[in-house]
Design goal:
- By secondary structure, the chain is an all-beta fold.
- The protein folds into three domains: 2-62, SH3 type barrels (Roll), CATH 2.30.30; 66-124, OB fold (Dihydrolipoamide Acetyltransferase, E2P) (Beta Barrel); 128-184, OB fold (Dihydrolipoamide Acetyltransferase, E2P).
- The protein is built from no helices and 16 strands.
- The strands form three sheets. The chain has a six-stranded antiparallel beta sheet with strand order 1-6-2-3-4-5, with no helix packed on it.
- Strand 10 and strand 11 (119-124) form a beta hairpin.
- The protein is flat.
Length: 186
């Protein structure tokens, strides 16, 4: 058990018997009233976002979570198979845990998986990935002056908006947090 002053954004709590990830955490002190914490939590099982108020000093149950960096091996149906690099154990993780970034994963990438008692509860793609552009409209010479973007299909099948000067066959760096183009890889 911990109190409300010990939790932060990214902490995983057991709230009403369900595991919840804290996405927003604000300490409020309204005038002459008692201080409280306004918390937005995402239920890790259902994906539903709930908002709650905790009194200052209230006891909450923090889940014991172990984070592991694992290697993405391959996709099998609705699951992704990852391997622990220390003992070579393979684990099936649902594609849904990666959210919209599941289509940016390539074999051999290192992903971050959170486990609670041998059960995967969250999964995170790397912050930056380098992928080859397999199809995009050709860039026209001199199209670098404006900040205009065009769609480009990368080797994993995902479509990313890129500047006009990016051509087919080039390797680009993508920020998975915003699914945005960062730059060309040399």
């Amino acid at each position: 058990m911990a109190d409300t002053g010990d939790i932060r954004v990214g902490t995983i709590l057991r709230y009403n018997g369900e595991l919840c990830l804290i996405t927003e955490y604000i300490h409020r002190t309204p005038g002459n009233l008692r201080a409280f914490y306004q918390v937005k939590m995402k239920n890790l099982k259902t994906g539903k976002v709930v908002e709650n108020r905790f009194r200052s000093g209230e006891q909450v149950e923090v889940a014991r979570v172990e984070f592991k960096e694992m290697q993405y091996l391959y996709e099998e149906g609705e699951n992704i198979v990852v391997m622990d690099q220390e003992n070579y154990d393979q684990t099936y993780v649902s594609k849904e845990m990666f959210g919209e970034n599941a289509d940016l994963l390539k074999e051999g990438m290192i992903v971050k998986i959170a486990f609670e008692s041998d059960m995967a509860i969250t999964a995170e793609a790397p912050t930056f990935v380098e992928l080859e552009v397999t199809y995009t409209e050709p860039g026209v010479r001199g199209d670098t002056a404006t900040n205009t973007l065009k769609p480009a299909k990368v080797e994993t099948g995902a479509t990313i908006m890129v500047p006009l000067f990016v051509n087919q066959g080039e390797v680009i760096k993508i920020d998975t947090r915003e699914r945005s183009y960062v730059g060309k890889v040399k």
